């Protein structure tokens, strides 16, 4: 029986040794998993930082592009305004000043010059504000006008 107890203690000590080795291996694996998780978090943080930086650069670029387009639109509006004023002056100079034709040409010249002056003074933002005010004061006619314009555009593009 002493032999059996001795055999059991050998098995017991081997089992304890194997359990210790398993615990040691598990500890190493846990340490490696922790290191991998930490590296993953670091990489995710770097990726987030790069994405944030890229987004900020894209927003700046979009803002710069919008500013550029806005400046070009204002420059175009100013050029159109000057052409309208010039055309109004040429109409006034080229057409007779008296009679029915003179009265009509004077009215057309006044409208051209006035519209050109308005465009120079107010620009596109002024047009937008005035248009918004007209729509707010007259919503039903504005809707009807939009429907009519949409219909005409649809007919023109269909042909």
Description:
The chain has 159 residues and is mainly α. It has one domain. 96% of the residues lie in helices and 0% in strands. The protein has 3 helices and no strands. The mean pLDDT is 83.
| Sheet/helix structural class | mainly alpha
> How many strands, what sense, and barrel or not for the largest sheet?
none
Whole-number radius of gyration? 41 Å
The tally of helices reads: 3
User: Residue-averaged pLDDT, rounded?
Assistant: 83
Percent of residues in helices comes to over 70%
Strand content: under 5%
Number of domains: 1
Order of helices and strands, N to C? HHH
**Uncertain segments:** none
In whole angstroms, the N-to-C terminal distance is 110 Å
Q: What is the global morphology?
A: rod-shaped
Number-wise, the strands total 0
């Amino acid at each position: 029986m002493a032999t059996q107890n001795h055999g059991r203690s050998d098995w017991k000590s081997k089992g304890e040794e194997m359990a210790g080795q398993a615990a040691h291996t598990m500890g190493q694996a846990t340490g490696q998993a922790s290191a991998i998780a930490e590296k993953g978090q670091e990489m995710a943080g770097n990726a987030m930082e790069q994405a944030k930086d890229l987004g900020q650069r894209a927003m700046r670029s979009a803002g710069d592009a919008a500013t550029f387009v806005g400046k070009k639109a204002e420059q175009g509006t100013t050029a159109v305004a000057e052409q309208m004023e010039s055309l109004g002056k040429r109409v006034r100079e080229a057409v007779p000043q008296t009679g029915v034709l003179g009265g009509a040409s004077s009215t057309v010249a006044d409208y051209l010059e006035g519209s050109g002056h308005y465009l120079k003074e107010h620009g596109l933002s002024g047009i937008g504000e005035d248009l918004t005010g007209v729509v707010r004061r007259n919503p039903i006619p504005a809707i009807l006008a939009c429907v009519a314009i949409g219909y005409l555009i649809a007919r023109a593009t269909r042909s």
